[in-house]
Amino acid sequence: MSGADSITITRPDDWHVHLRDGAMLRDVLPFTARQFARAIVMPNLSPPVTDTASATAYRERIMAALAPGLDFTPLMTCYLTDDTDADDLARGAAGGVFAAAKLYPANATTNSARGVSDIRRIYPVLARMEAEGIVLSVHGEVTDPEVDVFDREAEFIERHLRAIVGDFPQLKVVFEHITTQEAVNFVLASGANVAATITPQHLHINRNAMLVGGIRPHAYCLPVAKRETHRLALRKAATSGHSCFFLGTDSAPHLRAAKESACGCAGIFNAPFALENYCAVFDEEGALDRLENFASLNGAAFYGLPVNQSTVTLERAEVAVPAMLRAAGEEIVPFHAGETLGWRLVP
Ligand code: DOR
Ligand code: ZN
Q1: CA neighbours within 13 Å on the CB side: how many for 108?
Q2: Less crowded by CB within 10 Å, the N or C end of the chain?
Q3: At 54, which helix (H) or strand (E)?
């Protein structure tokens, strides 16, 4: 444990979040906007956000849901499909609508049915993105039913990511929500065009949290948490200060009923206390002095965006996480529900 009882850093950004739409958007957005100046907003709505027009409309709905006076900018992503129109994507990026385009392998996760069926099919789009400097954001898991769910990320590196990075050496690639030592190694061995986001849950829990003493659906997300050695590798990577690792919560709200089900949805709703959770990890690793790199500097540099001007302060103080919150008129369970955290974001 390091000694500091408070820490002030440049206001951070969330480089991967699911804000949803409608009443859910209205109720989860304040949690993200409380902490982060900007967020990369994932496009896996139903129907997905696949072009500039739908992204522009979605961005307007987010801005309309934002409480007045809150300083928050949503950064939009384009959901890549087999039929993505590269001209529209390039226009949307040049026009300041798209900050990135997201590759979901078809059927890898929530609302990914319209994702890419064969990465070769979008090679012309990737070539255009490389030429235009558009960031590729990747859900890195194979969907082959023969591959064990715990091996799907490592297998994706070997089957697809190595080829993408090799074939498009100038393409900027974010390997999202990495969960394995293999992913850490891959990113470290790649050039400056490859980076990764790391979630709070993958720094805090391993797969036992999901499966020991009963099945715990609120600890289930995709990619699924792996064994302890991987969690430790992720903690080392995140707290290293290395420019290729940055904050992306992957906060993915689903109503309690949809999680506590015979076929529960994947996703952990960590937005309410994301920053407090990251801060605890950096404190435990004796790396509070590197929190700012991870949370506020590395992502902006990778995306080529300016660093935020304002600051936030976290202090060592007990914070009780509610057992339950309300969203869209129903119950939703936050990450660490009912537990006490050791750091508090000063309002
Ligand atoms: O756990 C997850 N939830 N992983 C994803 O990739 C998608 C997300 C969601 O949208 O619910
Ligand atoms: Zn996600």
Answers
A1: 22
A2: C
A3: helix 52-65
Residue to mutate, 250, 259, 269, ligand 1, most ligand atoms under 8 Å from C-beta: 250
**pTM assigned to the model:** 0.98
Ligand 1 is surrounded, with C-beta below 6 A, by: 18, 44, 109-110, 139, 221-222, 252, 266-267
Question: Which amino acid residue places its CA nearest to atom 3 of ligand 1?
Answer: 267
Ramachandran bin of 343, using left for φ above 0, alpha for ψ from -120 to 50, beta for the remaining angles: beta
The pLDDT averaged over each successive group of 10 residues in the chain (347 residues) is 83 98 98 98 97 98 95 98 98 98 93 94 98 98 97 98 98 98 98 98 98 98 98 98 97 98 98 98 98 98 98 98 98 98 97
Query: Domains of the chain: which residue ranges?
Result: 12-307
What CATH number has the domain spanning 12-307?
3.20.20.140
Cβ within 8 Å of residue 87, ≥6 positions away: none
Distance, in Å, from the CA atom of 212 to the CA atom of 139, rounded to the nearest integer, reads 27
- Residues with Cβ within 8 Å of 257's Cβ and at least 6 positions away in sequence, in order, are 330, 331
Of 53, 71, 83, 65, the closest CA to residue 20 belongs to: 65
Active site residue 88: no
Q: Which ligand is nearest to the CA of 45?
A: 1
Q: CA angle at residue 255 from 254 to 260, to 5 degrees?
A: 95
Spell out the residues 6+ positions from residue 34 whose beta carbon is closer than 8 angstroms to its own.
Answer: 70, 345
- Closest ligand 1 atom, CA of 139? 6
